[in-house]
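Researcher: Going back to the complex we discussed earlier. I've cleaned up the inputs and rechecked each line, so this should be the final set. Can you rerun the prediction on the complete assembly and write out the structure?
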Amino acid sequence: MSAEAKDRLEQIYETLLRRICLLEYAPRTRLSEAQIAAEFDLSRTPIRRVLARLEDAGLLDSQHGAGTFVTDVPLGEMARTYALRCELAGLVGRLSPVAITAAHRREMQGFEDRAAALLATPDARRFAELNMDFFRFGVSLTGNEALREMSLRLYYQTARIWLTSITRLDLAAESEIFAREIAQIGEAIRLGDTQAAATIRQAHISLCVTRLRQFSQE
Amino acid sequence: MSAEAKDRLEQIYETLLRRICLLEYAPRTRLSEAQIAAEFDLSRTPIRRVLARLEDAGLLDSQHGAGTFVTDVPLGEMARTYALRCELAGLVGRLSPVAITAAHRREMQGFEDRAAALLATPDARRFAELNMDFFRFGVSLTGNEALREMSLRLYYQTARIWLTSITRLDLAAESEIFAREIAQIGEAIRLGDTQAAATIRQAHISLCVTRLRQFSQE
DNA sequence: GCGGCCTCAGTTGTGCACAACTTTGCAGCA
DNA sequence: TGCTGCAAAGTTGTGCACAACTGAGGCCGC
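Model: Rerun complete. Updated structure for the full complex:
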């Protein structure tokens, strides 16, 4: 079956996506197709298929003869994109919210534990990872596949905005705010109130962009 | 400059996209990379780049050794996807609506003319084209780039649902309904009320999915 | 000293041959 | 007659060589 080959490419896509979104590949970095191909022990051809996807997702920019560059964080569109993310976060609770199961509660407990660990010893990288994984969890609370897809797509486009700012903001303070958000949503999940969870998420995204704006105005 | 080469691929993408969305390539049709490459006088390699995009957009499905097939209309997810489209249509009027200009009014007049012509002699193909062009116009009423992109993406995924049903519904009746929608939105545009235009659009998408549901229940 | 040009190394884009795989149809056999 | 196996044709996926292009460094003319 060729499904395993497709899975392999999907896995490489995931890997590179994480590296970009977690700033392992900083914006404006030049990636080499040949180097990536060597790393994953493939030829350039299938790698180019993966890079093309990342380019379509707005995370890479290939320039003939020059190189493949990690896109810069789109600060100009920031406010508008965040506004849309905000709306979508709210829709998660209104369009086909899923019923909370024991698996959800277990997963939620895992996030609360990770948040506690982060609070004990703040670390930008682990912060970013927790943020990404938790966002995916939040998106999984709707049964609307298109909404999940759009939300994730937007998240990948904007995740780096906040992440690049956080190093200049107070990491400890942001960790505390994030831990509080997770605690609040955990409570909603325990009560089985999916819509409340989504609304809290929406509020925090809104607050986050407000903090960012205040920061950039200073 | 390699921009012209990129434009060329973009143009091919547009062409194939239209063919799929306008049912020129019917669902389940098998496309041949070699044949398309021959048509556009390119090798398979850049064509594969284009087909990959269409696959990522959910319009094609490549199977190793078997062929690349036009995806079937996603009837199962229909209700949920349309629900999201509905919400996004409403957001067009609320998130960064653009100010109506003379160009908008001229363009709108063009749509009203085309609608009148369609009403005189109903034709499924021209109906589909008008629908697609008018949707793009509607999307252009927001300054929120992400919202435009998401709306279009969703439109391409669902356009065929309605289009395949319309041949079995009453084409003349649907044309009349569509012409009325265009007239109503035209009035809003003339008055410079972007939000009203978006709201009317939203209502009509909702009505459309209701008609579809009634039809499938019969 | 400085500006323009050119060469060269390095990168992405394209074409082509072959590998991997699926489907179809036919031949052979029970 | 029906079924199984196989071969062949056709398709997408991969690897590789080369074309197209960019940017940097050095060289030459002034």
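Model: Worth noting: The two ends of chain B are 57 Å apart (CA to CA).
Researcher: Good, that matches what I expected from the previous run.
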